[in-house]
Amino acid sequence: LPAARLSRPDLPGTAKRDIILPNAYFQSGTLMQITAAHLSDIPALCKLLDTLFSQEADFAPDYDAQSRGLAHIINHPESGLVSVARLDRRIIGMVSLLYTVSTALGARVALLEDMVVAPDARGLGTGSSLLEHAIEVARLNGCKRITLLTDSDNESAQRFYQRHGFCRSAMIPLRLALNDSPMETARHD
Q: Which of 48, 63, 136, 182 is deepest in the core (most CB within 10 A)?
């Protein structure tokens, strides 16, 4: 099937651009559908992010911050895309991509920012389907690489991504918090 194009109006400081999405599809044998997220999905997405951030070393759940971030991505598709997996209309997983440009590649690249599947929906192939969807979205939108971070001790996540073709980088992430958040200061002292 041909990919769908989602036209968005010009935003200040950006060129008009069609965001290309693969057609929504159903996972074989289930009623799971993967589509772009909508603003009305934010409460369910924040619940999933609460699950994700509760297990990550560098982050803690913050509904207001997560709502703002998700709304920005959904309202500004040139910055990225949030996709959701629905099973019988219930959101059971999500993946978000953020776009930037690599000077090394001279091309657009993506950062896989968040990926999480609800604990009671794991083992259905949802994570693999979401990741394959994200890879296809990145390809359709001209990205030449996807980069992601996992906790250093989350070996099951690392094996999962490696099974899907991701490999370790010689680069290491460093972070500088640019706010006065006590959480950020405490985590990096």
A: 48
